[in-house]
Design a protein that fits this description.
By secondary structure, the chain is of the alpha/beta class. About 30% of the residues lie in helices and about 20% in strands. The protein has 2 domains: about 80 residues, no CATH class; about 200 residues, Rossmann fold, CATH 3.40.50.150.
Amino acid sequence: MNEQAEHGTKPGKANPLADLLLALYRFWHGRLGLKGAGYLIGKIAPLAESLQRYPIRLPEGHSILVDFRDVSSMSWVNHLLGEEFQEAALINAINFATDGDAVVWDIGANCGLFSYLLIQSPKIKRIIFCEPNEHMFRMCINALIAYPNATGFPAALSDKSEDADLFVPAGATTMGSLQPQKSAPGAHRLRVRCITGDDLIAQGSPAPDIIKIDTEGHELAVLRGLTKTIRTHKPLIFLEHLNFDEADISCLLPADYEAFSISSPDGVLAKGFNKDLSHNSAFIPRSRQLTV
């Protein structure tokens, strides 16, 4: 059953209040470039059911339901307004670093926009996305329904295959973390399934050529669970480094890999660790020849 059927909402049947607010946002933010309309929608959303499952039509012809109580919804709206995706540099870096025909693992897929944009690259053969938050996972599935070469797992990658608590701040699923110390005060707990990347391959998932990790401080556990995969297949690894310093990066870096920083917005890879360039780093096997 798809998400639209589950919620009983059909595209084109949105509440007039929600339509009016989205029209205001498109004009105020999209056309005039002014701030405030998104804040207004976020304040009204907890009180307006129609803003909690609002249908947004994608260019492929299908719709996804977004919940404007969560910041991830604005990512989809802004994308459809033609704004540059906040992870555009990361997508550019992946396209630059791969030779093509690549299998990508998107670990921490959230609302699915990253996978949705990346899978449209001619260099990407297949995407495996992992997202433990059930609501976000359904959004990913619906967003990527037109792409049979995208496969999702409703699980978090970690260093153990077991259940764990995911801490999700209210209205900010993008900040959900398996690390209690990284969570905001008042974050609610979701019991989620965890699996190691090595176990995922043992269960038949294709080995990655590229791994993208955005897990809000849980990156080291993700990499520990991929020890055999990294040693055997030498994938390119891209990860958010907001929660780390240079010493942490040295601990995260697998043997025989070199750290690069990703420049924003062009996605050029620069040797070494430099937080001033962007919020993402890349780990590239030393055997891999890149022009930087």
